[in-house]
Amino acid sequence: MPAFAPFTLSAPRLELRSLGPEDAPAVFKLFSDPEAMRYWSSAPWEQLQQAHDYIASTLAGYESGEHLRMGLDIGGQLAGVIHLYGFNRQNRRCEIGYMLGREFWGRGYMQEGMAALIDHAFRVLRLHRIEADIDPRNTASAKLLKSLHFVHEGHMRERWIINGEICDTDYFGLLRSDWLAER
Ligand SMILES: CC(C)(COP(=O)(O)OP(=O)(O)OC[C@H]1O[C@@H](n2cnc3c(N)ncnc32)[C@H](O)[C@@H]1OP(=O)(O)O)[C@@H](O)C(=O)NCCC(=O)NCCS
To answer: What are the tens digits of pLDDT across the range 83-93?
Structure first.
């Protein structure tokens, strides 16, 4: 992908925006919450430096075009993040990851934010396929993906070892044609 200039995407109740160094404390709050990190691919963060490293990697991603992280902003508050990564240029595919602060769960915010970014990914970035890899116990995440027309494509055994815990993976895929047919 080419470099990403800062941009915003608007949805009815929220805005997706680029992240900057000033977001480090809010990002730390998201990723240090053990409940929100229950099914994440790494342990909850313990140090603010991890948020600074995350922002540095985010800014490097904008520069290189290797990955794209957007902040989910609700009324001026950074409520979550959505990440497009693992871009494969030849096959025009990437993976998607998402994190929403616990106080915002269950109100359809992530569905709204992801719909805006997915639409951008297919229409503007011209991607062909988006993939998601989730812990099978993460019911909210599976429901969210299905509501966005992702298809469950497979189950992989013992794919992750997180903090010593061995976890399976459910794999979901969304094609550009699936998305455009539903919109
Ligand atoms: C997964 C996550 C993004 C869902 O965001 P959200 O904004 O709460 O999602 P929605 O409000 O659109 O809810 C999606 C569905 O899950 C349900 N849901 C929400 N929170 C739930 C929970 N804690 N347990 C079970 N179901 C839940 C909702 O009722 C909804 O189902 P419905 O469409 O049948 O009504 C959010 O819970 C989160 O960030 N969790 C922590 C990080 C994480 O696990 N990320 C995914 C890693 S793969």
So the answer is: 999 999 999 99
